[in-house]
Amino acid sequence: MYTMKTNALGVKDYQALRGTTNWNLVPDLQVQKALEHDLFSVCLFSDRKAIGMGRVIGDGAIYFYIQDLIVHPEHQGKGVGTSLMNTIESFLDHRVQGYAFVGLMAAQGVEAFYKGFGYTKRADDGPGMFKVIQK
């Protein structure tokens, strides 16, 4: 049985799900500060264990970014990601008024998943840069 909670993502659940990826570790205090600035978050639980999450960050008016969409490997392919994205899309549908850019960074091999929600891959020559700051 699944339970979904919105805007209640905690550091412990975030860190547990992030730990199922190969992403860099982030200190708890930094995670807490980041979560406090979410526009929206969703977390799906199975027997009180977080099995999936997603966040929306941005300016809340023009720019929105889907961030940290993670499904625990044991629950992938069972509709968890779709449920999370449907909830995020519902939030965006109610929040966006007029023009908005909704961005996300998709891992290789999952572009088709996001395509099902209307997202398209940016052109290879499109602007996009990043840097990693590690202190």
Task: Give structural notes.
By secondary structure, this protein is an alpha+beta fold. Helices cover 28% and strands 26% of the residues. Helix 1 packs across helix 2. The protein is globular.
CA(first)-CA(last) distance: 41 Å
What does the main sheet amount to? Answer: 5 strands, mixed
How much of the residues is beta strand, in percent?
A: 25-35%
Helix and strand sequence: EHHEEEHEH
Overall SS class: alpha+beta
Please compute the radius of gyration using only Cα atoms: 15 Å
Which oligomeric form is depicted?
single chain
Parts with pLDDT < 50 across at least 5 consecutive residues: none
Features:
single chain, 135 residues, 5-stranded mixed sheet, 26% strand
Topology, pairings included?
Blueprint: E1 2-6, H1 11-18, H2 28-36, E2 40-46, E3 49-58, E4 63-71, H3 80-95, E5 101-104, H4 111-115
Parallel strand pairs: 4-5
Antiparallel strand pairs: 1-2, 2-3, 3-4
Short description:
The protein has helices spanning 11-18, 28-36, 80-95, 111-115; strands at residues 2-6, 40-46, 49-58, 63-71, 101-104. With 135 residues, it is of the alpha+beta class. Strands 1-2-3-4-5 form a five-stranded mixed sheet.
